[in-house]
């Protein structure tokens, strides 16, 4: 039965206990937020495969029918979590420029790290505005092509070539493990410098630390400390042509906690690896789209490095993979004051949890909801629709979006220029079939076979 709770003089709608339990069970499952180390978390991949997102999307649709337009407060004692259920409400939250809905989530709200951006919560007492300014400057947030694109693209091509290796042209299998290891080397080089290329230990420590935030055991605390020291070493060395190098050159000095900032960037590249691999799986299962990508690559001059500007269709494919299987399942905003929604009042300090797949795959609003439809990113159908939010939006929008797209498109272009992906095992993917809600990247195996070179 629907319950109401008084807040001052006004009532706000709350989920029933069974609905809260159901929501908790689908929202808080382990989730592939990041690759989590060279192999990534198998459990998270499995929950994706078993359709956790499908259940979540259906549950939210059911709640919207049952409780009305919302937003809906979760009946979790000590937490003020609120779910927006309408696209217009998502737009309102993300378009806000008054600071009423902030992406700076108060640590006292106790939001689990796995719901936060890249699974890396902001350190307590962080000066968010200063950190965001640093992110924007170093990551060149508003430039499609990063100022270090030249040296970055050379490294991207090197790592793609290393992944292809000699035998690859004979059609050897490509697995997620290999792909994520290659992308891990790349992410460490771009963020920390070439000296970090082989530092797999760091990636493993970061993955353990992410788990340790939940377990807080003695070992995890030690791992977290070792990890911090290692990261601090790279930040202090500030290699040229790396993001930490750029961080050290900020005119206003480094922000409060560069180590947490740098771990979020590394996590961002792990997310980029996942999205890139999934793009490859989609292309392998959709020969028509693949042909269009290869057509795009064929008109590039022989030695040109393909950045996102040169390959708009491939870029759209990457965005589409990010829409269909969001690596960030939730986008959060916290209200700084009491707010009114469809006649109901939500108290100050509430954390609005935007469930990304619910809006990215909204069958009522999007004709292409469950289809691989890269064209929507080119013909204007996706762009003005702010409720399709693989990279979030507004003041908290992913500061690394353009860099992620540069890395993903260049890496994929390097693989696809002379090779064609064929599916060995891509569970339930195929032309004319609805795209499943979850893709187990471990179970997705491809082969890259030599293709006639498209270069003129
Ligand atoms: C395909 C890959 C990626 C996806 C899908 C993605 C998605 C997201 C999302 C949804 C958010 C939260 C946005 C919001 O609250 O509105 C976010 C935040 C963020 N991302 Fe990414 N991201 C990716 C790659 C990256 C990369 C490569 C970097 C950095 C090198 C990065 C840096 C950040 C930062 C710094 C934030 C926090 C922004 C803030 O708090 O203001 N991301 N990302």
UniProtKB/TrEMBL annotation:
Alphabetized GO MF terms: heme binding; iron ion binding; monooxygenase activity; oxidoreductase activity, acting on paired donors, with incorporation or reduction of molecular oxygen
Annotated region (Disordered), positions in chain: 114-133
Iron in keyword set: yes
Organism this protein belongs to: Thermomonospora curvata (strain ATCC 19995 / DSM 43183 / JCM 3096 / KCTC 9072 / NBRC 15933 / NCIMB 10081 / Henssen B9)
Any one Pfam family match given in the protein's UniProt record, by short name: p450
Cofactors named for this entry: heme
Organismal lineage: Bacteria, Bacillati, Actinomycetota, Actinomycetes, Streptosporangiales
Keyword flag Iron: yes
Residues binding heme: 398
Keyword vocabulary terms for this entry: Heme, Iron, Metal-binding
Protein family: Belongs to the cytochrome P450 family.
Gene3D superfamilies found in the cross-reference section: Cytochrome P450
InterPro entries: Cyt_P450, Cyt_P450_E_grp-I, Cyt_P450_sf, Cytochrome_P450_monoxygenase
The protein's name: Cytochrome P450
Xref: SUPFAM superfamilies: Cytochrome P450
